[in-house]
Specification:
CATH architecture: Roll
Radius of gyration: 18 Å
Order of helices and strands: HHEEEEEEEEEEEEEEH
Oligomer: single chain
């Protein structure tokens, strides 16, 4: 598996994401009181992770302890010796609202932690999906890539905002898909996606 450098500028170059530096700077400014605007992040200690474990309440799960369940969300440049894997996840946007009204869907591009004043901040660099509406036929919520000026919207989020993994299904439309189309491009090649609440009964309870 490829080894990442430990400098945020070099990491941004390796993953071809020049927005990473500025997004991390905004994240620290939002989470640290009186964070200096002119400080350079280049010397900040950074650790890279290829997955994160989400623990969430699943009351209908009879096999768990007191309804708690754990699952792993992956974001890795190489999965089983082949292409990278970057899972989607639900993040909590408004705790006061139920279901998709209080959640957003993101795709995780990088899991990492950054250290400032001897405190580590576990976070993720993500791409955003915009919530559209429930589909009238399937009942599934539809999301689409959130873009500004033709580019996907990205930011850095604290891992505390993550709820659990999400599964998206492309809205295929009427055009034929080429026979040599590779599944690894699925989240980049379609204009909209269904939020698959039928992937398991836990998602069925929350993606409402």
């Amino acid at each position: 598996m490829p080894r990442y450098p430990r400098n945020i500028d070099d990491i941004a170059r390796v993953i071809s994401e020049p927005e990473l530096y500025h997004a991390t700077q905004e994240f620290l400014a939002d989470n640290i009181e009186d964070f200096p605007d002119d400080i350079s992040l280049s010397a900040f200690p950074i650790s890279i992770f290829h997955s994160a474990v989400a623990t969430f309440l699943a009351p209908s799960d009879q096999s768990g302890i007191h309804g708690m369940r754990r699952e792993r969300i992956h974001s890795t440049p190489s999965w089983r010796g082949a292409q990278g894997r970057h899972d989607c996840a639900f993040v909590v946007d408004d705790e006061e609202k139920a279901g998709m009204s209080g959640m957003r869907v993101v795709r995780v591009l990088l899991f990492f932690s950054i250290e400032y004043n001897r405190e580590k901040y576990p976070c993720a660099f993500v791409e955003w999906f915009e919530t559209v509406a429930p589909d009238s036929v399937t009942g599934l919520w539809v999301v689409r890539p959130e873009c500004t000026g033709g580019s996907r919207d990205k930011s850095v989020l604290h891992l505390d905002t993550f709820l659990r993994a999400a599964h998206l299904i492309p809205v295929y439309g009427n055009q034929k898909i080429p026979l040599d189309f590779h599944f690894s491009f699925s989240l980049d090649s379609f204009q909209a996606y269904y939020v698959n609440k039928y992937i398991d009964h836990h998602t069925f309870e929350i993606a409402i």
